[in-house]
Write a structure and sequence with these properties.
The complex is a heterodimer. Chain A contains twelve helices and 19 strands. Chain A is an alpha/beta fold. In chain A, helix 2 (about 70-80) packs across helix 3 and helix 10 packs across helix 11 (about 340-350). The model of chain A has no long low-confidence stretch (mean pLDDT about 95). Chain B is elongated and about 70 Å long. The two termini of chain B are about 30 Å apart. Chain B has helices spanning about 5-20, 30-35, 40-50, 55-60, 70-85, 90-95, 100-125, 125-130, 145-170, 175-180, 185-195, 215-245, 255-280, 290-315, 320-340, 345-365. Chain B has 16 helices and no strands. Chain B is about 70% helix and about 0% strand. By secondary structure, chain B is mainly alpha-helical. Classes of the chains: A alpha/beta, B mainly alpha. The interface of A and B includes residues 42, 130 and 138 of A.
């Protein structure tokens, strides 16, 4: 077997977008780079594999977006979703730097999705990669190979040897064998810890066993935990995660985009007791889908069921999983394992609260609302009365966690006292909480990962040359 | 929808239709989005729209080892093999001649043997092993009538069987005869085929060899396609020279038939060899072994036809000419007889799929 030469100035931990941006940048600046990806070759790329677009500020729509998106508007969006909880300086830096991303990405092999007459329409704020995130990751790995970045798969960092605020070596495990790798700078870009169920249980207890992890099983947060152990200053709510409602029959890990259930605004959602628990028609679905993961997580046994009738089938994206289907609500209740009388009472109350005078308009906030019902359904409330009925079982599907390490504008990881480690940088989800402390903006995780990946890589290389 | 193949295909395209990340790559995915329930005809259509660039496989986060095991290039390659088996007529011959190495090799040997026997019976064994010169040299090995009759019979058989297959395919993909008479769709599909448009994948080329994108496959394929066209032009010009202008072969080196034949032959050799090497070095996971076997058999046979043709040109004044001519003609005959049942016929089904795509996209627009 060929013995790989593992000497490198900069070690990059992680194998997704942020890690690759860091590796490419550090290599461009002349440093020798070793990238440790925990996943095997075919599953490389972390959660970036499941992405498809990046948000960036632009004054020229170009060929791949439909309009301009200023830094100011971008900031407004960010402040809205985070409720103002963001590190303003880092946020401004991210938005400013985001403008140069498409050009940089293209130069490193990424291709864009052209407008089609099909379903994938371009948007104003985000640019879509041809083939999605895995294609982008593959392009970056190809470029990294050409540039001479060394890449190891099934290789992960467990700890750091830190001496007077500087990392001297990474304690790694390569194909199961413990190895100590010395280096002159390290970039931590290992994502969040959402695939580490034991860690989630610290905050959520046993219910965490019922969570579905939408992304890679490799985001175990071990390197993040080691940094925190060595005195890095945490940022973000440890309990916080972004979650959507996914089909309960999804695989435990890595189900990605196709497990999402979009039927919710077209019917009702009940828990295992057969009771409704939230306004299914609160707002347009793209603005609300991201709250349903948390809502389901709070229900008994972390399960719920979206129920629609035959009238609305075809109005929403079909799921890859066949819905439960029955000619009567009681038969459907039996399939779901819900008490038929309880479900019947819920549906009767719901149907009885609809006066039928509204006009159903699925594309806008219509006037079909319930009256006097708790919780109400404020839009798209049609009676549930046309068999066959269909149900999709729902579980919380966790996309990412918010907990990370604090960084400065050079992507240095900060210690508890606010002073930076001399040669430790962070990029991607393990530091995104500095900027996106809560809430969600489509394609913004990649913005942060790309911007800070580049900064971290460049910073690490210049530290090596200093 | 009842067979395991069809339910697997349905599952895989359900995943594709829920994801849609690949819809910018090629014609397959937009066509799949128009079909939420797949019939076997739909699958045959999608299979022949696919040019096996593998960009979708490489971009798929659900590809093996992911538990969803989405592998569209393999699924569609397997379906293409079935297309050739199911639609090519007559079906009894289709089962017999299904492109496999042994049947093609035996058929080639039989064809060569038949020609050698015919040559020996008509012109004598000595004619086979003597050097011949001057006009009509080839016919001193095998009589003109025998060569032309054999050629026409074999060519007509190949064309008729391929056309019958094309008609069967068109019917099962729910195409009506009326809608196929759409000149714009026919012309646009011809342009797609002539430029090998869908072999570009997403623009960076195919994943051959493994793990690196390049346009090598498309270039080699263009050499094969246009090399074959040159060889056909050469044959046609030769027929005109001979039957209209009464100039008998062998033709001078600088004559049109020889120039076309030589250039075409060289293109075929380079193209077939290139494609064979690329295929051998390609990832086997997104491939179907039955399809790969067909590919190799066809590439080797076509390459041998080209090599023997070129050798015949070089050695036509020598005593080796008689045997070389027989081998070359035997291989050409084998190529045409197996054509409707092997890889050769992809030209027919792919073209019809491209026509259907044009009609469908125009309707959707």
């Amino acid at each position: 077997m060929e013995v790989p030469d593992l000497d490198a100035d900069v070690i990059v931990l992680g194998g997704g977008n942020a890690a690759l941006c860091a590796a490419l940048s550090a290599r461009s600046e002349g440093a020798t780079v070793l990238l440790l990806e925990k996943a095997p070759f075919h599953l490389r790329g972390g959660n970036t594999r499941h992405t498809r677009d990046v948000r960036y500020a632009h004054l020229d729509p170009g060929s791949y977006t439909t309009g301009i998106y200023t830094e100011d508007e971008f900031m407004e969006d960010l402040l809205r979703v985070t409720g103002g909880e963001t590190n303003r300086a880092l946020a401004e830096l991210t938005l400013r730097e985001s403008q140069t991303l498409p050009e940089w990405m293209e130069r490193h092999g990424v291709r864009w999705q052209k407008p089609l007459q099909g379903t994938l329409h371009l948007t104003r704020t985000n640019i879509f990669f041809l083939g999605g995130g895995k294609a982008m990751v593959n392009a970056y790995y190809e470029t990294a190979k050409k540039m001479g970045v060394k890449v190891l798969y099934e290789a992960t960092a467990r700890d750091f040897v830190i001496d007077r605020g500087a990392v001297r070596a990474v304690v790694a495990e390569i194909a199961g064998v413990p190895t100590k790798l010395s280096c002159r700078a390290v970039v931590v870009a290992t994502g969040g810890f959402e695939a580490n169920l034991a860690w989630l249980k610290r905050y959520w207890g046993e219910p965490a066993d019922n969570f579905i992890i939408r992304g890679t099983p490799h985001n175990d947060g071990v390197a993040l935990a080691a940094l925190l152990e060595h005195g890095a200053k945490p940022v973000g709510d440890p309990k916080g995660f972004h979650a959507v409602a996914v089909d309960a029959r999804s695989p435990k890990f890595d189900g990605g985009i196709i497990t999402r259930i979009d039927a919710i605004p077209f019917g009702i959602v009940v828990n295992k007791l057969g009771r409704r628990f939230y306004d299914e028609g609160e707002d347009l679905w793209p603005k609300r889908y991201a709250i349903w993961g948390r809502l389901v997580a709070e229900q008994p046994d972390q399960i719920a069921y979206a129920i629609v009738d035959a009238k609305v089938v075809g109005r929403f994206m079909p799921s890859v999983f066949e819905p439960m289907r029955a000619g009567s609500l009681s038969a459907l209740a039996e399939m779901m394992g819900i008490d038929a009388a309880a479900l019947s009472a819920t549906v009767e109350a719901y149907n009885g609260a609809i006066d039928g005078r509204g006009t159903f308009k699925p594309g806008e906030l219509d006037d079909c609302a319930t009256a006097g019902l708790v919780p109400p359904k404020t839009h798209w409330a049609l009676p549930l009365d046309t068999p066959p009925y269909q149900a999709y079982p729902l579980r919380p599907g966790i996309t990412f966690t918010y907990l990370g390490v604090s960084v400065d504008e050079q992507a240095h990881v900060l210690m508890q006292d606010g002073a930076p480690f001399a040669n430790v940088y962070a990029a991607g989800e393990c530091m995104a909480g500095n900027i996106l402390s809560r809430g969600y903006l489509a394609g913004f995780g990649l913005t942060i990962g790309s911007v800070f990946g580049r900064i971290a890589g460049k910073g690490a290389a210049s530290h090596v040359h200093a | 929808m009842s067979t395991p193949e069809m339910s697997d295909a349905q599952w895989q395209f359900n995943v594709c239709n829920a994801c849609r990340y690949c819809e910018g790559y090629c014609a397959v995915f937009p066509a799949a989005e128009l079909r939420s329930t797949l019939t076997s005809g739909d699958l045959a259509y999608l299979a022949n729209l696919c040019h096996d660039c593998r960009d979708c496989y490489d971009a798929c986060m659900y590809a093996p080892p992911h538990e969803f095991e989405i592998n569209i290039p393999k699924l569609l390659a397997e379906a293409r093999v079935k297309t050739y088996e199911r639609y090519s007529r007559p079906s009894a011959l289709s089962r017999l001649l299904r492109a496999n190495g042994w049947s093609t090799a035996l058929l080639s040997i039989a064809a060569i043997a038949l020609i050698l026997v015919a040559a020996a019976a008509t012109r004598g064994v000595s004619g086979l092993f003597a050097a011949h010169g001057g006009a009509g040299a080839f016919y001193r090995v095998l009589p003109y009538a025998a060569m032309v009759t054999g050629g026409i019979v074999v060519a007509l058989f190949g064309v008729a069987a391929a056309v019958a297959g094309g008609v069967a395919f068109w019917n099962e993909t729910h195409g009506s005869l009326g809608e196929s008479v759409n000149l714009r769709a026919l012309a646009r599909a011809a342009a797609d085929a002539a430029t090998l448009r869908w072999m570009k994948g997403g623009g960076a080329g195919c994943y051959y060899p493994e793990q690196g994108r390049s346009n090598a496959r498309r270039r080699f394929h263009a050499l094969v396609m246009w090399g074959f066209v040159c060889a056909l032009v050469s044959t046609t010009l030769a027929a005109i020279d001979q039957d209209v202008l009464h100039i008998l072969p062998p033709f001078p080196i600088l004559s049109a038939p020889v120039l076309f034949g030589t250039v075409g032959g060289l293109m075929l050799v380079v193209g077939c060899t290139g494609l064979t090497v690329l295929k051998a070095g390609s990832d086997k996971v997104p491939a179907a072994s039955a399809m790969a076997a067909m590919d190799y058999v066809f590439l080797v046979l076509l390459n041998l036809v080209a090599v023997t043709g070129l050798a015949l040109l070089v050695l036509r004044a020598s005593a080796a000419m008689g045997v070389l001519l027989s081998v070359h003609l035997g291989l050409v005959a084998a190529l045409f007889v197996t054509a409707p049942y092997g890889k050769f016929v992809h030209a027919v089904y792919r073209y019809l799929a491209l026509v259907k795509r044009q009609i469908e996209q125009e309707r959707a627009a």
